[in-house]
Amino acid sequence: MNRRQQFVAGAALVAVAVVVVLLLAPRVQTPPAAIATATATSTATATPSATPTATPTAPPTAVPSGVLTGALGYPSEFIPPLTVYAISVADQRVFFSVDTPRYPLAANSPPRPTYTMSGVAPGTYYVLAYRNDDVNVEAKNSPGVYSQYVLQCLQPNAAGSTPAPGCSSSDHSLVPVTVRAGETVARIDVTDWYYGPTRPSYPPRPR
């Protein structure tokens, strides 16, 4: 074997030895524990998304109501059971009411009975009353009212239930009553039942 052949043979042996060493060398692997640690670290350092905070809303403020009060009257020896209504001038679908029982009107009875209607929202109202007893349709549909006649003829009378002497008024039109928050409006007497068959067009009993 000449020198050139020996060199080639030696190089081949070295190459074979390198391949064998590479094949037999242990492979480096990442331990499972390290993988778990990396995963846990990644999760722990993630930035959480911001949760919007709701702003509390204050409850609505209740509007203070007013009170209506006044005397009741009827041209008889008794006052029938009534429902007194305050009906909005602007919208007759809006109304407030209070029920009153039957009252006898004996000669020695105490002063005329009154009504008190609480919880009336601020606004302008007509005040009138409808009978609740068992009477004919005409009587049920003929209200007692707070009218100009009350102001001009009934309230000037000390008794307040019959016209004052010399009163000649025939004005039975309703008087608008303004209710303000937190105030009591007094002397809204529902005592006018004297208008006869030619009465004005009063609001019907609310349903």
Notes on the protein architecture:
The structure is a single chain. The protein is an alpha+beta fold and 207 residues long. The protein has two domains: 3-41; 66-198, Immunoglobulin-like (Sandwich). Helix content is 22%, strand content 22%. It is built from four helices and ten strands. It has helices at 3-24, 32-44, 137-140, 148-154, and strands at 66-71, 78-79, 82-88, 95-100, 103-104, 114-120, 123-131, 144-145, 177-179, 184-185. 21% of the residues are buried.
Assigned CATH class of the largest domain: Mainly Beta
As a percent range, the share of strand residues is: 15-25%
Derived from helix and strand composition plus strand pairing, the structural class reads alpha+beta
The helix/strand order is HHEEEEEEEHEHEE
CATH superfamily heading of the largest domain = Carboxypeptidase-like, regulatory domain
Apparent shape: globular
> Main β-sheet, in a few words?
5 strands, antiparallel
Query: What is the typical, i.e. mean, pLDDT?
Result: 79
Low-confidence stretches: 13-26, 28-46
List its salient traits.
10 strands, three-stranded mixed β-sheet, 22% helix, globular, five-stranded antiparallel β-sheet, 207 residues, Immunoglobulin-like, single chain, alpha+beta, 4 helices
Layout of helices and strands:
Elements: H1 3-24, H2 32-44, E1 66-71, E2 78-79, E3 82-88, E4 95-100, E5 103-104, E6 114-120, E7 123-131, H3 137-140, E8 144-145, H4 148-154, E9 177-179, E10 184-185
Parallel strand pairs: 1-10
Antiparallel strand pairs: 1-6, 2-5, 3-4, 3-7, 7-8, 7-9
